[in-house]
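Q: What would this chain look like folded?
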Amino acid sequence: MNPFSEPHMTDDFDTLYDRALGAYLGLAIGDALGATVEFMRPREIRAQYGEHRDIVGGGWLRLARGQVTDDTTMCLALGDALLEVGGARLTGDEHMTAATRTIADAFVGWLRSKPVDCGNTCRRGLQRYLADGSLSGPQNERDGGNGALMRNLPTVLALWHDTAALERVSLAQARITHHHPLSDAATVGFAQLLARLLSGASHDDGAAWVADWVQTHPAFAFQPYPGRATAYVVDTVQTVLYHFVSHADFETALVATVNMGDDADTTGALVGMLAGARCGARALPQRWLSRLQRDVVMAITDQTSGLLAMSRRG
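A: My prediction, written as structure tokens:
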């Protein structure tokens, strides 16, 4: 299957599809590239690789070349749930409880499939849901990780045109496992930024939006860059926004990000998502795209088409 071909589209929809597919494939590329150096320090990366810039697998998870982690596979689980629910049930409050339960069930199915990795907060939240059926736990300081942020891309593809529904569903999927004000702010903020990029925002437009957003959410200020790339949502957001704003080129932004190490699969995935939406799928580096496992590329391609069809019906 050619991930860049999609029949029966208008020119405007073709452009939207290219950006959306660029975001999703960019996320998977960043995930696969960054996973090799996850939990390493920059000096360790330099000692072993000089500069890490090839999808080779390995790392602490001992991945096959082109294999992705929970960043991508949780996105695919969420996307499948959104397609099952359908757009009409995502735009009305009366259906949100049932829709959120479908999402939670999809995450449980993902967990039971024995994924290559699962964050502690995601696991704890899903175990709570299995134990008591609750779709959100109480607000918890331990929930300030990046797990809800990393998987929200399908929500944006389905609802990029509807600001209120985009925020509502982003928070609903997030709080199944993460209930923390900084996680909430980051998940909604990145959803809004990605929606703008899908609409055609340039690098300068995106940077200006980020500057305004950071003024409203000063906890995420990244100038000067603090240099931390951990799974704490503030560190993740600062790293991603710093490199997204600093580099207009997809490859340059992604290489700079993953060479920070720490939670490099997630920071790489999120920079790949934003920069991929900005440049579009046709501009993604072919040497990286060709290294992704074929079944992942096919699943992403099919899901992108389905989620954008939902957005059109909406």
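Residues 11-35 form the longest helix (25 residues).
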